[in-house]
Amino acid sequence: MSHRYGTHRYGTHRYGTRVTRRTLLTAATAVAAAAMTGGTAKAAEGHEVPTLWREFTRTPFTHPQIPYVGRAGCHRGASRRPRRPVVADVRDYGAVADGTTDSAPAINRAIAAAGQAGGGTVSIPPGTFVIDDVIHIGDSNVVLRGAGSGRTTLYATKNLTELIGVYGSRYGGDKSSWSWAGGLIWLAPRARWDSLTAAIRAKAWPFEGWTGNKRDEWQTLTTVAPARRGSWTITVADPSKLRPGTLVLLRLADDPDHTLLEHMCGGGPGPEAYSWDDMTKLTSYVPYEWPVRIAHVRGRKVTLERPLPLDVRPDWDPRLTTHAEELTGSGVEGLTLEAMETPQQPHLLDKGYNGVVLQCAYDCWVDDVTVRHVDNGFGLVAASACTLRRTRVSGRGAHHPYFCREGSHDNLVEDFTIEQRTDPAPTGTQLHGINVEGLSSYNVWSHGDMRMGTFDSHRGLPFANVRTDITVDNNGRHGGDAIAGPLFGARFTHWNIRVTNGRAGLMKIDGLAPWSATVGINEVREFDQIDVPDFTGDLHSRLELYGTTDAVRPRNLYDAQRELMR
Predict the structure, then answer these.
(1) pTM score, two decimals?
(2) Contact (Cβ atoms closer than 8 angstroms) between residue 373 and residue 395
């Protein structure tokens, strides 16, 4: 299958062909029926097909409880990533695998040279390379590639506090923001990186632009007519500035009655009665910004590469705008990033021995990368349509093994492992696991082995996220400021989850998440839980095949949704 914007297919429909709801659903239903029945009239013996799955195949883009995430990930979830020619070898720039020489300057020079050349692969051979600075990828189409996570190691001797500086919480206080941002390998557009690090070093706090767009950087391209969640095609007022392949922001502003936030929670009496005005951190996250590439323009009809994540209503001033300069087409592959082993700090005082972070990135990836002895492992900050594949967090305990925040959407984390910590948990520390927050939506965690942690929400109303086919020793707890709002919005789905210690918190979410689904989870019990529902009344959340794992078909919700559109 080609993944060039002019030829990528939705099923058998090219961008140049009219994509209709009827053709999409017909193909989806036919393939889904085969997936859930094995091509027969009933499921195979010993397998159970949830009612929710049968419903979903009839309305895959508008189901009330299960989100459509079949296009999550880099290049719409493509299994093969771009292979860029090698344009630089770090040894040619002075890197030495002797375990003592600081190779960070050489590696960064090689990365900069690849950027100046318009992109390409920077090769790191087998061996251990010491780095005394951040490795920064700031240009698009640049790939940093080691010889494999078991052969190439970058050994980091310093933390982000030492390298960049100390700065506090976005909302004041003495918390370290390195507790939830920044990486020793940091992918972020050069302009954004320069403005952030300069502001930090100058202690110019607070500063704008952390997530990718200052409020004065938007340029409206066109307004958008009303449309329903799940639509692939929208009608715009002026298509003259829109081109296939262009990355734009769909921007939705909330209204004084907070009907946009209510819509993110599925609507109804519970969200309507919620005290939204008190949630000052949450309300700072709106307008909701959803990056998406344009697939096709025909008159005023614009087809998107993914279906709409929410309704588009006039009350929310819907418009397509420019996107701040993004990093796209870049990646990190085949290496281990090992931080100097130091004691884990008390909660929210992390020094910044952080792993790999993608910020203001789109269509970027990390593949076959391990991080060891980190404060925080892998991060997605205002990053969308990125893939983390075959990643691993190991060594001493991490505060956030994976974090997804500040409006990150449509990302895929698959084939991931969080190993059991190698040290006892110090007093005053917290373990979260796979975190999502800050209006982040349509993200997927798939095929996971979590030997510690939990399915964390740090509040901030994340919605329409999926965790599927994961084994977890559920020994973490959720976080999030009280002023950040609800733990969950609508259409969270936990599908085929194996909880090895039987602890219920944040696994079985039918009593917590509105308009959501828990399908195929073993029997769990409440123990030392702090998670309580945010909304009163009927949550309209579904529980099915409770006490069943692995026999549920489809076994992996993301994989099955991918099949819907092949």
Answers:
(1) 0.92
(2) yes
The one-letter code for the residue type at 56 is F
Q: Which of the pair, 537 or 529, is modelled with greater confidence?
A: 537
Domain ranges of the chain: 220-319
In DSSP terms, 236 is beta-bridged to 224
Cα–Cα distance for residue pair 487/170, rounded to 1 Å: 20
Dist CA 387 CA 148 (whole Å): 18
Distances (CA, A) of 382 to 290, 374, 488, 500: 10, 21, 18, 32
Query: Shortest CA distance to 331 belongs to which of 528, 52, 527, 75?
Result: 75
Q: In the structure encoding, which two tokens stand for residue 438, read together?
A: 């800050």
pLDDT of res. 249 = 95
Terminal CA-CA length for the chain: 10
Number of residues that this document lists for the chain: 566
Measured CA distances, 563 to 33, 70, 232, 434 (Å): 11, 8, 18, 25
The DSSP-derived string for 59-110 is STTT-SSS---TT-SGGGG-SS---PPEEEEGGGGT---SSSSB-HHHHHHH
**For residue range 145-201, what is the model confidence (pLDDT) as tens digits?**
999 999 999 999 999 999 998 765 554 567 787 988 899 999 999 988 888 887 777
Residue 414 pLDDT > 50? yes
Rounded CA-CA distance 497/516 in Å is 15
Whether pLDDT at 288 is above 80: yes
